[in-house]
Amino acid sequence: MAVMNLSVERVLAWRAHRQLLHRPVGNDAVAVVGRLAGVQAQVASAAEQAVAARQPNPRPGTTAAALATGTLVKTWAMRGTLHLLPTAEASACLALLAAGRFWEKGSWQRSFVTVGQLDAIAEATRAALDGRVLSREALTAEIVERTGDGSLGAHLGSGWGAVLKPLAWQGLLVHGPADGNQVTFTRPDTYLPGWSALPEPEVAAARVVPAYLGAYGPADPETFDQWLSRGGSKRPMLRGWFRALVETGELVPVTVEGRPGYARAGDVEEIVAAEPTDDVRLLPAFDQWVLGPGTRDTTVVPATRRADVSRAAGWIAPVVVHRGRVVGTWQARDGEPEVTLWPESPPVPADRLDEERSRLRSYLKGVGDA
One GO molecular-function annotation for this sequence (predicted)? Predict the structure, then answer.
């Protein structure tokens, strides 16, 4: 069977539509986050703005409201970073991360705690958070008391949460409601009405891989795994997930200007028919447009400009996107979006850029007034 070869321009046009950058009516925060297979939330305001960038009439506070009702959940997920996930879909993402068993690696145990200690922490956490919401300090104190291991305090109190992430991936804790400036944690199965137990990895992959490809495809297994775990999944398991979906006919092999990958079978005709537009989008820091395929994808971020986007300490800059490609960066100064276009990029329509700046200016003003 011949493999369809797709053009980059049509792939990017299709992705923009799938990622709701045309801003259709009727998508609330949960729908947007679900379509993007999660939104990175290391910076809460950036996550809020990522949703707003995909809505026709955004209102500040929509992700916070969804978190308050439990329809969105905040937890450590893809790449070990904080994400917003639809509560109904979160367990599948976490199951794939848990399947990697990253905490069993010798290097991880030498840096943090042993598997035996982590098992004890998990048991103590399950009991401590049963129907409760605790601050990091309170949870740490309870775990130390329940395990009788005082050496755990330093690891559990770390702001990076390295020892807590495996607990999140196993569905034992999620972030609870903020208590002033304090982070809190709770157990999802006793706190979130829409929570479901973690499925088996194969079942989870049958949901998460198509969801990823439905927003960022076509892609190969390695690109998917960079998004999921920075390449940490076990190779045979990873390839098995894709192979199973090809065998059922849900995925088909394609190439994008000669680069092999996979697409959902039902998306190929839409990709072929996708037409680029001259829309300009000012997307926030840590936006999924960049994080989904990764900053190394030169079809989105020019290789010579990667350092302008992926900066020190893991910071991903706010970007200007035209015809699917990053053509510059921007920053807000006193509520005004200041844009830096890269001179080597194709010209950006001035009227479209002005429209986008005006829209963003109004949104930033609303955030300031909220």
Answer: DNA binding
